[in-house]
Amino acid sequence: MLSYAFTTLNQDGYENVATEDFDNLHNLFAAILAKGIGRQLKQGLYREYMNRTETLPVVRGKIDMPGTIQNRLARKQVLTCQYDELSENNLLNQILKTTVMLLLRHARVSEDYKTDLKKEMLFFSNVDTIDPASIRWSSIRFHRNNNTYRMLISLCQLVLEGMLMSTDSGEYRLASFVDEQRMSRLYEKFILEYYAKECPQIKATASQIPWALDDGVGTLLPVMQSDIMLTQGNRVLIIDAKYYTHTMQAQYDVHTLHSNNLYQIFTYVKNKDMEFGDRPHEVSGMLLYARTDELIQPDNTYHMSGNKVSVRTLDLNREFSEIAAQLNAIVDEHFS
Question: Smallest Cα–Cα separation from 228: which of 248, 199, 249?
Answer without folding.
Answer: 199
